[in-house]
């Protein structure tokens, strides 16, 4: 019995090659896409599951509810939380550790380079079971002159030899010390949100001058992780977090008399949840994370593509069912019951699904390296990995049943008396209608995917071409100018750079575009009730900053060297309690916050702010600039002040003309001759800004590829349907031609038949696509115009229609040209 | 063997009601060779389909071995059918994707018969109808007469006690037609009941009894002298 089914199935496949090709190719592509996406999804879901404590590790996230601004959500917390948590929750918390990433200058055997290392607490060794391959991690983390490094780092700097006991000199802020390599651990697997190549112990005495790093309650620089004691409930901690805040944090002036917990809020995030749940924070993770939305979107796309392939199967099988009606009738005459026939046809569709799966796996093997590289992961497809084969078999059966069930029911339902007597088979109008509906669905999915691809790509173009309010072209940033080896020489370096041919302007600044840094200052503004405090973003800039960035002024003037008051006064050079004088430049957004009216009206108005050492200064507004998009194009514009203060000048912004390469070469030469202990590093501003949208760009490309695949599969199906329909209609076409229809008439007739479902598909797809894309665009503060979706929808519809015509047209023309006599005599 | 009492078959569409069989009373005994004749559209095929349990009557009784099967479900009918009745069609109705041997075997597949026994019985019946040398051929490679011999083999391989033949010679030339008729006669002599619809008076002469249908009614029954 079984061999009989198989031989009928295989001979049917061989006999009807077009039918088989369409089904198998469609299923192969669909299943391959599914497997690739499944690998991606599985990987995303596997993050940090491998730690032995995975279910007990949590991270402390901090949110600042600054009055008048969006809450600022960070994935970090303040340094003092480590001891405070342990003291406040002794029953619940087992161990707490901090991670603080620092770029250090290393000197090894006379060569100088910079590396990023993670400063951490000894508890890291207890919380995270890092795989140590040499040395003693616990001991290393107890010592402020020892380093634990991963294998890649060890290999990079110490070759294949034993790195243990070797030393490097590290320069970081006030640290200048030899560190001994005390432990080597295996590189972290890629599916972890943690990322560090080296660990050094946090010794707060090393950072007394930089007390914001580890000792201040208003500076958020540390990833704080803790383990819950076995059996303890995380809810107990969550319920008391507000009390914890009020117990440790002084309320800031900006919130008046309210409790600290209205301003600072903590939330606890399970380690395994971090990869896919951004907790509303801008990305400040150790490395870029994914998000659940993307994972869901891709899973949905996989399911949709597979569905399109299954629809092909259903459609072709029902279209072809008339050809197999006789077989069904004979089997029934010979005693087959309906159940046996259903099993036979489902078996056949499963066989086809199996063949499709085999070709699909070949496609997966071919495409996996490219796909892996594209999603930036090291994906492995292991057939013998627990459950893989089971999942593949399951997928095959699901596809077989999904695609084959309806045809099996239709076929097995044929009444033999009718089929055999009439010697033809009347297809029920029901299955023809279902077929049209399914074609509509296929094209609706394809069109939606095209519109989505277009929108994602359009948004990427929009964001990268958006005018940020300054001239980002021909601008580069030299980094590291605030490193200890560079600070004293940076003014001379700037002079040197200005003399280089091709350099037009140069200016220092604390931040560079898209750096993601967030610093704020409390500003006091006089109003009717006396004074109120406003927290506002701050950038520290050089005299030539506005000129270098080509930022226009809405009112007032830039800073200049003739005016001594322009320099932000230094509180440490005054007595506590003094009131100093200074000038300040603000952006348009700040005026709104201050309540200062138009830019012109704001000139000359006064605000107060602390300038350190408990000294206040009174700042007169001398200039107003537009809201330039300096921070990040992914962030909402914030109100900002630009102070003329040299503190934290870590960037030298250089505007050049002509070819940048000789300019960079000259700058590097000057740097090396003047600042030998700090590595030279630079970026082009426009490139840095474009990098922010790399993720969106790769998303749009992936979407493009997958919607292309969806359309290919849908068109394969349409082609097959057109061929079968034309074959079935040969007699009708013959009669029409005898009656005088021309080839054009016939082609038009057939094409119109297949245009209808595509047109209806547009009506289904457009609202879905528009709704989906409008909500996706909500993620971006600067987004392309919504009306752009209208032409996108039209274009997608035309593309789908064009492809459908091209698919059906050739076949239609061939059928239409055939000699009608042949068709009529044959019947 | 079978008895029909006041049996009618009415086809209804939305607007038209067609009476295909009208109060038919027929009795056929085991071992008979009956021919059913009549002009196109008189209800011959409908009658044959009901006898073969491919269709249910609208009214009346149909006793098959004293069991009234007139209202039986499709599944129940299939079960009786596969044990007792073999079919031969004008257009042969072989499955194009199966070889000659596989086509014949098909009739045994839906019975619980071991593969080895199936093979033996298929071989035996192929010998009997003289197509053993064509066992591995596809139907499309055979002549019409050969195809009909395969169909006959398929109809009897399950040891069915009755064969229903719907114009078995309609698509054959006279030489091949006669060949098939002789085969049917041979089967009848071995005890198989045969009911055959035919247009050909010559072929009807092979039967012992002829039932003439007109407009859904039995008009005459002729017995041929033995």
How would you sum up this structure, described in words?
The complex is a heterodimer of chains A (827) and B (226). Chain A has 827 residues and is α+β, with helices and mostly antiparallel strands. In chain A, 47% of the residues lie in helices and 19% in strands. Chain A folds into three domains: 2-42 and 293-462 and 694-826, no CATH class; 54-274, no CATH class; 503-656, no CATH class. In chain A, the strands form three sheets. A six-stranded mixed barrel of chain A has the order 4-5-10-7-9-8. In chain A, strands 15-16-21-18-20-19 form a six-stranded mixed beta barrel. In chain A, a hairpin with a 5-residue loop joins strand 19 and strand 20. The model of chain A has no long low-confidence stretch (mean pLDDT 85). Chain B has one domain (29-54, 84-223): Rossmann fold (3-Layer(aba) Sandwich), CATH 3.40.50. Chain B has a six-stranded mixed beta sheet with strand order 6-7-8-3-9-10, sandwiched between helices. In chain B, helix 3 runs parallel beside helix 5 (144-156). The A-B interface holds A 1, 4, 7-8, 11-12, 15, 326-327, 329-338, 340, 415-417, 420-421, 423 and B 45, 49, 52, 54-55, 74-75, 78-79, 81-83, 87, 89, 91, 93-98, 102, 105-107, 109-111, 154, 166.
Features:
heterodimer; A: 827 residues; alpha+beta; 3 domains; 6-stranded mixed β-barrel; 6-stranded mixed beta barrel; 24 helices; 23 strands; 47% helix; elongated; B: 226 residues; alpha/beta; Rossmann fold; 6-stranded mixed beta sheet; 4-stranded antiparallel beta sheet; 7 helices; 10 strands; 34% helix; 28% strand
């Amino acid at each position: 019995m079984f061999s009989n089914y198989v031989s009928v199935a295989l001979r049917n496949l061989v006999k009807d090659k077009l039918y088989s090709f369409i089904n198998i190719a469609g299923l192969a592509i669909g299943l391959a896409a599914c497997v690739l996406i499944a690998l991606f999804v599985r990987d995303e879901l596997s993050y940090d599951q491998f730690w032995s404590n995975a279910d007990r590790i949590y991270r402390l996230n901090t949110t600042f509810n600054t009055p008048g601004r969006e809450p600022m959500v960070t994935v970090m917390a303040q340094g003092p939380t480590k001891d405070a948590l342990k003291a406040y929750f002794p029953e619940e918390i087992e161990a707490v550790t901090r991670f603080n990433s620092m770029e250090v200058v290393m000197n090894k055997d006379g060569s100088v380079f910079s590396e990023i290392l993670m400063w951490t607490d000894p508890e890291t060794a207890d919380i995270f079971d890092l795989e140590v391959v040499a040395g003693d991690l616990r001991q290393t983390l107890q010592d402020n002159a020892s380093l634990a490094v991963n294998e890649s780092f060890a290999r990079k700097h110490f070759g294949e030899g034993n790195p243990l006991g070797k030393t490097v000199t590290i320069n970081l802020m006030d640290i200048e010390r030899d560190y001994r390599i005390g432990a080597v651990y295996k590189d972290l697997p890629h599916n972890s949100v943690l990322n560090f190549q080296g660990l050094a112990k946090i010794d707060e005495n090393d950072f007394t001058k930089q007390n914001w790093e580890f000792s201040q309650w208003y500076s958020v620089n540390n990833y704080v992780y803790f383990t819950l004691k076995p059996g303890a409930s995380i809810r107990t901690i969550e319920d008391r977090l507000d009390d914890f805040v009020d117990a440790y944090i002084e309320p800031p002036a900006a919130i008046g008399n309210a409790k600290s917990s209205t301003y600072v809020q903590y939330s606890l995030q399970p380690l395994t949840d971090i990869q896919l749940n951004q907790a509303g924070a801008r990305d400040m993770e150790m490395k870029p994370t994914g998000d659940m939305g993307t994972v869901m979107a891709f899973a949905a796309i996989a399911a949709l593509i597979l569905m399109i392939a299954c629809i092909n199967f259903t459609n072709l099988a029902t279209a072809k069912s008339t050809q197999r009606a006789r077989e069904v009738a004979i089997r029934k005459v010979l005693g087959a019951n309906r159940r046996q026939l259903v099993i036979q046809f489902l078996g056949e569709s499963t066989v086809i699904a199996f063949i499709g799966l085999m070709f699909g796996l070949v496609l997966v093997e071919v495409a996996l390296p490219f796909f892996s590289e594209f999603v930036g992961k090291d994906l492995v497809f292991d057939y013998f990995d627990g459950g893989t084969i089971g999942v593949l078999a399951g997928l095959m059966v699901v596809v077989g049943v999904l695609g084959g069930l309806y045809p099996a029911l239709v076929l097995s339902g044929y009444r033999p008396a009718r089929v055999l007597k009439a010697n033809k088979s009347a297809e029920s109008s029901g299955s023809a209608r279902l077929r049209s509906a399914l074609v509509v669905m296929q094209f609706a999915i394809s069109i939606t995917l095209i519109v989505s691809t277009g929108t994602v790509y359009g948004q990427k173009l929009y964001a990268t071409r958006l005018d940020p309010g300054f001239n980002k072209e021909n601008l580069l940033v030299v980094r590291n100018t605030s490193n200890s080896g560079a600070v004293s020489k940076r003014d001379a370096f700037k002079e040197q750079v200005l003399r280089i041919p091709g350099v037009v302007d140069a200016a220092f600044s604390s931040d560079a575009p898209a750096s993601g840094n967030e610093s704020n200052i409390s500003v006091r503004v006089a109003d009717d009730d006396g004074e109120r405090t406003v927290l506002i973003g701050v950038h520290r800039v050089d005299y030539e900053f506005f000129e270098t960035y080509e930022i226009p002024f809405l009112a007032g003037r830039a800073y200049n060297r003739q005016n001594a008051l322009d320099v932000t006064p230094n509180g440490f050079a005054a007595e506590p309690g003094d009131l100093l004088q200074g000038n300040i430049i603000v952006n348009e957004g700040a005026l709104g916050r201050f309540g200062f009216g138009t830019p012109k009206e704001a000139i000359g108005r006064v605000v107060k702010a602390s300038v350190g050492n408990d000294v206040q200064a009174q700042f007169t507004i001398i200039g107003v600039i537009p809201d330039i998009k300096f921070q990040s194009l992914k962030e909402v514009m914030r109100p900002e002040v630009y102070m003329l203060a040299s503190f934290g000048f870590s960037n030298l912004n250089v505007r050049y003309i002509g070819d940048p390469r000789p300019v960079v070469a000259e700058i590097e030469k000057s740097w090396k001759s003047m600042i030998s202990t700090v590595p030279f590093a630079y970026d082009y501003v426009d490139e840095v800004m474009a990098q922010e949208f790399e993720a969106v760009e790769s998303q749009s490309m992936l979407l493009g590829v997958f919607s292309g695949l969806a359309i290919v599969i849908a068109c394969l199906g349409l082609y097959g349907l057109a061929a079968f329909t034309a074959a079935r209609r040969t007699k009708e076409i013959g009669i029409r031609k005898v009656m005088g229809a021309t080839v054009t008439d016939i082609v038009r007739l057939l094409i119109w038949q297949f245009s209808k479902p595509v047109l209806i598909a547009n009506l289904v797809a457009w609202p879905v696509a528009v709704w989906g894309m409008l909500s996706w665009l909500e993620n971006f503060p600067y987004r392309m115009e919504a009306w752009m979706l209208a032409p996108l929808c039209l274009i997608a519809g035309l593309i789908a229609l064009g492809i459908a015509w091209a698919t059906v047209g050739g076949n239609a023309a061939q059928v239409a040209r055939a000699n009608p006599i042949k068709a009529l005599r044959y019947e | 063997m079978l008895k029909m009492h006041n049996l009618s078959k009415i086809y209804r569409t939305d607007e038209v009601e067609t009476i295909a069989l009208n109060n038919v009373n027929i009795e056929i005994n085991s071992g008979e060779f009956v021919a059913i004749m009549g002009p196109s559209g008189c209800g011959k095929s409908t009658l044959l389909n009901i006898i073969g349990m491919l269709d249910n009557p609208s009214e009346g009784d149909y006793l098959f071995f004293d069991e009234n099967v007139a209202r039986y479900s499709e599944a129940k009918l299939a079960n009786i059918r596969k044990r007792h009745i073999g079919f031969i069609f004008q257009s042969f109705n072989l499955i194009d994707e199966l070889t000659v041997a596989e086509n014949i075997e098909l009739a045994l597949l839906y019975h619980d018969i071991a593969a080895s026994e199936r093979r033996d019985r298929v071989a035996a019946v192929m010998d009997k109808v003289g197509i053993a040398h064509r066992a591995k051929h596809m139907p499309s490679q055979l002549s019409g007469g050969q195809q009909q011999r395969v169909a006959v083999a398929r109809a009897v391989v399950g040891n069915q006690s009755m064969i229903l033949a719907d114009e078995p010679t309609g698509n054959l030339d006279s030489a091949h037609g006669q060949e098939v008729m002789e085969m049917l006669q041979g089967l009848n002599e071995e005890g198989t009941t045969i009911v055959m619809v035919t247009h050909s008076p010559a072929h009807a002469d092979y039967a012992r009894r002829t039932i003439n249908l007109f407009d859904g009614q039995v008009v005459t029954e002729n017995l041929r002298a033995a």
